[in-house]
Every structure is written in structure tokens, then in C-alpha cells.
Amino acid sequence: xxxxxxxxxxxxxxxxxxxxxxxxxxxxxxxxxxxxxxxxxxxxxxxxxxxxxxxxxxxxxxxxxxxxxxxxxxxxxxxxxxxxxxxxxxxxxxxxxxxxxxxxxxxxxxxxxxxxxxxxxxxxxxxxxxxxxxxxxxxxxxxxxxxxxxxxxxxxxxxxxxxxxxxxxxxxxxxxxxxxxxxxxxxxxxxxxxxxxxxxxxxxxxxxxxxxxxxxxxxxxxxxxxxxxxxxxxxxxxxxxxxxxxxxxxxxxxxxxxxxxxxxxxxxxxxxxxxxxxxxxxxxxxxxxxxxxxxxxxxxxxxxxxxxxxxxxxxxxxxxxxxxxxxxxxxxxxxxxxxxxxxxxxxxxxxxxxxxxxxxxxxxxxxxxxxxxxxxxxxxxxxxxxxxxxxxxxxxxx
Length: 398
Prior knowledge:
Layout: H1 4-15, E1 27-31, E2 34-37, E3 42-45, H2 48-51, H3 60-70, H4 83-94, E4 100-104, H5 107-124, E5 132-136, H6 145-150, H7 154-157, E6 167-170, H8 175-181, E7 186-191, H9 207-218, E8 221-225, E9 249-252, E10 263-267, H10 269-272, H11 288-303, H12 306-327, E11 331-337, E12 340-345, H13 350-358, E13 361-362, E14 364-366, E15 370-373, H14 381-396
Parallel strand pairs: 3-13, 5-6, 5-7, 7-8, 8-9
Antiparallel strand pairs: 1-2, 2-3, 4-10, 9-10, 11-12, 12-15, 14-15
Helix pairs in contact: 3-11, 4-11, 12-14
């Protein structure tokens, strides 16, 4: 006789599209850094919905905001003004370089909006021949046809030819190759402050300052994809703040609303004006429910000491992982910022992720050999120690 989990999994395999290689866990509820499956087994969640649950599962302030808003108004058209959306846009702009915010539903949509903005602004300036955007190899910008083309990973693009035109790729962190790639057709440079899906790559010191100078020199928009790095994940509210520069456009999603789907493109007034009425839109973007959750989540991140905790716990976790590196020769490197850390291995990481799941720990592996750790930013030293004990026990058996 099948267990409750097995019955749900069979139903899912029958009717849900097979676009994910799912693990045998049927999620039922979550609280803080813990996820509970439908059979009652608890898991220490160091994946956090892939850097979405920055405040953990079911944070009380986010839950209350959703409940209160759902009782008043769940959705209305963007033909009308939405108070929660206005407040959220104000708070994002108050704490960033931005002047205006376009709301959508995901990181891919936010990046689509940024790509359209860069081309439209260039066209409005009389440079319709300037449409090319330079991105980085090993980058990840989304799964739509345009954003998968912007993504500098061939494995993500396989089978979807012909791809969109107008993108060129350079190695991340290589300023000389970026200089060489700029041509009369270039209108923007689009980069992640820290590459996530590509293996948690941190740029060398001074790289983004040099990129900013190149953009200023050539009249290019600097677009920073902060879908994964934004909202406190790296120990600053936005990762660009580590670099002592400001972008022209920034994209957000994942942690912005603490769980509900939302995306945002933040831009300076000078560029935002290019997308006037009728040039872009989103039916559900910035709807009352998502915006209310976003306002609650962002306010908590800013006001409740969450970023300070992220910085402290990030240092604690990084140091502990370095000690593991000294203990196990198959650990090649530990890297990242804040609570966005990667552990590169000389062996395949897939089986380690599966074993961790069996032992009640949720992590994942990217590019085959990099274990990714993106726990909620409210994680404690006790929970980090529990995670390390599980990881150490797995490594000891290899």
C-alpha cells in the first residue's frame, strides 16, 4: 500500500508537466527555517525556495499582510491606482538608486522588461541600430525565450533555436574581454552581481567599478540582475551596494515578497520614461495581494535586523565551511557573499543532495559540482550547526 506521499507523487507525475526533476518530498507546511512534508517529517531548509523565503516560511508579518489584504481586495486592474503597490514602489526607491518601479510576476519577466527598456531607450534616442546587450558566460537570467538567450549557458538554450538575436557573451569578471566585446551595436551590459545558477561566482575587486566606467564612457545602460542577490541576501539590501556603484536598471523578484510571486524592474527616471503607456504591461504585476506581502517583507528586512543577522550568520557559515574544506580534500573552494554561499567539489554533488534530503536537510547542486546554500536570512547558529553536522556526516562516508 502506498504512503500518503507516494500517492501524491503518483498523481503529480500523471498530470503535472515534467519540467522539473522533483525530489520525493511532498511539502505540506513550513515555519521559519523548517519545512514539513505531508507525512510529518521535518526538513532543515537551506534552499529557502531557491532564495525566495528570505524571512523563512510563513513569516507572521507576511502572513498577516496577506490575510488582511485578501479580506479587502485580491486583484484589480493596473488601469487603476493600487495603494500597496504605490507604497512598495516608494520603499524600494527610498532605499535604492531608483526613481520608478515596474511590477511583474517573476525574475524572468523583470529581466524581459529591462531588456525592452534598454532597446526602447536606445531607439528613442535615435539609435535604433543599437540593440545588442552584453551578458556573461555562466549567467542565468530566466526561462523565457529572450531571457534564456540572455543566459550565457548553452545547456539552457539547447533545443530552442533559433534564439533571439542581439546578445553577446563574455567571461564574468574579465574586464578586458568586456571592453573588446563593446561594438557600435551595443546598448547595454547586463550582469548578476554574484552569479547564482552559474555556480556562486563573486566578481574580482574593482570589476563593477570598471564596468560602470565603461558604460558611462560608451553611453550604455548598466543593468544588474538582482533577482537572487537582492533583498538582503548578500548582507546588503542590494548587492550592488557592496561595489560602491549604482546601476541604471535593477531587476528584483525571489525574496521581494517573502514567498508570493512578484518581480520588479527598478530604474532611473531618465530611462523609465522610455516605457510609456502601451509599451509594456502585466495583468497581475503588482496586484494588491503580492504588493501587500512585498511591503511587509521588505519592511521587515529593513527594520528588524535581518540584514545584520545575514551578515553575521554568513560569516559563521563561511568559516565553518572553510573548516570542512580543510578536512575533506574533495572540497575545492568555498565562495559567496552573505547567505549566498557555494561549495565547489571535485566530485558530483547530486548524490550528496539526495542523501541530505534523506537525512532531513534541503540543499541543492548547481552546475553539477557546486553545492548551494541559501537559507532564510533569519537562520540561527544552532540551525547552521545542525546543517553542518548532517553535511559532515555525509562527507565522512565519501
